[in-house]
# Entry
Amino acid sequence: MEQLVSAKELRRIVNETIDDATLPAEDLAEGWLYWFQKRGERYLTSAAKFGYTEATLDLPKPLATTMNKPVLRALLKRVRELVPGCAVCIVEEEYEGAILFRLEISWAVAAAAHAPSTENNILEE
# Structure
């Protein structure tokens, strides 16, 4: 069986991305949205086929740790447009002592009533 990519190569790519501190949050969000537009449908439909009614997506670490709320709001708005009828929010969580943001998408029946918890949703006012 042919290998897709090694863990060593993936770690090298991640380290190059993390080390590039000059990449603006807007560009990271645009890149993540490009990935989501290409792969998000498969990710979400696979989750639904396994019986899940919601999914949590990690954002790239530099984006997940940004405090740039306008960028996160723009990302949230665009994802909501891409998955109509789903409840979508960005939640703040603590991981290994650091604050980071994750994207939650729910497609449960009556999505508004079963939306992901907004307790930690830093973008909802």
